[in-house]
Each structure stands twice: as C-alpha cells, then as structure tokens.
Amino acid sequence: MTDERFERVLRDAAQDYHRPPATPREEMWRQIVAAREARRRRRVMLRPRLRWGVGIAAVLALGVAIGRWTATAGGPARAPIGPSTVGPSDLAYRLAAAQYLTRAEALLTGFRAETRGAEPTAQFATQARELLSTTRLMLDSPAGQDLRLKALLEDLELVLAQIAQLPATTDREEIQMINQGLEHRSVLLRLRTANPAGPGSVRTQGAL
Amino acid sequence: MDERELIARVRAGDGAAERTLYDAHVDRVYRLAYRLAGDDDLAREFTQDTFVRAFERLASFRGEAKLSTWLHAIATSVVLNGLRKVKRFHRREADLDDAAGVAAGRRAAEPDLKRRLAQAIDDLPHGYRTVFVMHDVEGYTHEEIGASLGVETGTSKAQLSRARARLREALADFAGEWAS
Q: Do A132 and A162 contact (CB within 8 A), yes or no?
C-alpha cells in the first residue's frame, strides 16, 4: 500500500472511531448554569472567611516581627512558651492563633466529611494554601517554641500541603492517604485539645 | 456580533452572550471530548467543565489567540487530565484471531479494518492518539493542535507521523488487500 493510499484509507476508516452522537446542547447548558450558580454561592459563603485569614496572618506576622525585634535587641533569652507561661502581652497572638486553629479544624473536619462520599472541591485546596502560609508564620511565632504545639503545627503543615496539592493530582488513593494521616496522627483530636470549643476566654485555655 | 464584542458582553455578565458563545463552540468541544473519551457521560462532563472554566477565566483572556484556540486549550487540558484521573480508557474488543479468517474482498474486510483500527488507535501512546484524533479524525490543523496542547507544530507533525506509522504496522495484514 502506498503512503498516500494508506493515509486515505486510514482517514476514512477512522471516521467511525468513537463516532459522537448529536451534541446534547440543552442538557449540558442546564448543567453548566447550575454548576456556575453553585460555585458563585460557595464563593459568597467563603468570602468572610478569607477576610479572617488575612487578619490572622497579619496579626501573626506582627507577632513574629516583634519577637525577632526583641530577640535582636539583646534582651534576656526567653524560656519556651508553654500553656502556663504566656503573658498578657501575647493576647493578640493567642487570639489569632486560636482563630487559626479553629479554621484549620473546620477545614479538616469538612474535608474528611466531604471526601467520604465524593471528591473534594477546589475550595479545600484554596483554603489549605491560605492556612499553609499561616502555619509557617505560626511555626516562626512563640507557638513554635512549645514542643506540643510545634508537633501539631508540623503535622498540620504536612496535611495542608497535601490538600493544597490536590487539584493537580486528585485521586481516591491520595485522598485516602490524607485521611489516614489525619487519623493516624490524631490531628483533629489534638487540634480540638489545643483549641477547645467555647467562648473566647475559654478557647485560649488549651495549648494556647 | 464579532468575537471581541461577544467577549466583552460575556465579561459584563450578559447571559444571552454567554449562550451565543456556548452555541458557537459546543459542538466541536463535545465532538473532541467524545472522540477522546469514547463515552457519552465523560464527554458531557468534560464539555461542561470546559465551559464552566472558560466563563470563569474569560476575564484573563487577553485576545492574543483566537477564542476557539483558547477554548480548545482548556478543553484538551480538561479531557486529558480527566482521562488520566478516571483511568477509563475504552478499549474495544478485538479478536485478532478473526483477522486470519478474513480474506474476502474490500466490502467484507471493511468492518474488520475499522474494528482493528479502533483497537490500534486505543493502543497508541496518549500523545500520538490525541494528535491523530485531532488531526485525522476531527480535522484540526497542526497549528490548532500545537496551540491547544502547548507544543510546537513540528512536534504535532512528528507525533502524527509516528502515530500513522504505528497504525500502519498494526494493520500490516491489510496491506495486500488495499494495495491495488
């Protein structure tokens, strides 16, 4: 068979390869409209949380900057900060940290619940990325000197990084691995212990 | 309404313009999705996802390429990532033993050729298969394929040539029959 003839035969025969039916225009359009409306509603719901995230990050950044400034100012070395050694001047940091832990808990609880039945939405990855940068600030803050909290933050950093990567690599195995990691390291339990539920003054009685 | 005006109206939130844009491109996107997925549910899902993403990202469309090229870049990315994710490549059953029994004329050979060809296309490496389907089946130009897949047109041509060579090899036992 000559190349030209072969190509002609090939092209003709290939027209039957996965021959598409008529385009289901109306059905697909209805689905597109519904999907966009659902996304729009989700965005509206998430917007206030985003503002909180920026606020928390700003307070933590300020805390880290003050910490670094006081350390370089030649003051006496500070003892590691544990539950009983936090002074009243750290109130802003403690509130920001409590809010951060509350958001992390909400994200991980939601992630675990949603991934039982379906694939997680991209919003989880977006929120995980925001929290990830706050986690790094937390590790640099006085919280990073508390061994118990530091271990929790490091586990959180790992889980959040895995969730943040999900849009590019989503598959059930990966999601299962994240959930197994959450269970195995008791991340949610430790989060709740570090940041007990309740009004502001009670919240800061955990690891913070 | 020209393309620029249509895009401006969609960006401004004009629902009728959105539908016009959809109607202008949906057939080609759905056909490509179906050809590559071989499954109606997947093809619908990929097409819907393509348009949802396109409407969301239209604000970032700078008009450097044609809208159809930009849209097909989204479509091919959605389809190829989707196929990778769900790992549902549809392979048609090909009973290779039957081929030995087919020594009849052109008419009798045709259905078997198509069946064998479908199997051979399914067996191509993903890159070759995508380029072959886009060019030889759906009629995309190498320029369109290059822009959609983010590769040089030379790469597209080379992959098509290799795809055809593989198919020729897979269908070698038909060569004598079709030579005359």
A: no
Which chain A residues are Cβ-neighbours of B38 within 8 angstroms? Answer: 18
**In which element (H, E) is residue B98 found?**
helix B96-101
Residue ranges, chain B, pLDDT below 70: 86-111, 175-180
Task: Supply the ipTM of this predicted assembly.
Answer: 0.82
| Stated pTM of the model | 0.55
CA–CA dist A158, A135 (Å, integer)? 10
Of B34, B117, B167, the CB nearest to A20: B34
A170 neighbourhood in chain B, CB within 8 Å: 85
Q: Which of B38, B48, B110 sits opposite A35 (nearest CB)?
A: B48
- Give residue A20's pLDDT band: very low, low, confident or very high (50, 70, 90): very high
CA distance, residue A39 to nearest chain B CA (Å): 10
pLDDT score of B163: 95
CA distances in angstroms from B179 to A5, A53, A74, B18, B120, listed in the order given:
8, 70, 90, 50, 20
3-state DSSP call for residue B61? Answer: coil
Distance CA A65, CA A164 (A): 26
Q: Are B76 and B82 in contact (CB under 8 A)?
A: no
Give the other-Cβ count within 10 Å of A72's Cβ.
Answer: 8
Task: Give B2 to chain A, closest Cα distance, Å.
Answer: 22
B80 touches chain A (CB under 8 A): no
Higher-pLDDT residue of A207 and B162 is B162
Say yes or no: B109 contacts chain A, CB-CB below 8 A: no
Check residue A109 and give its pLDDT: 82
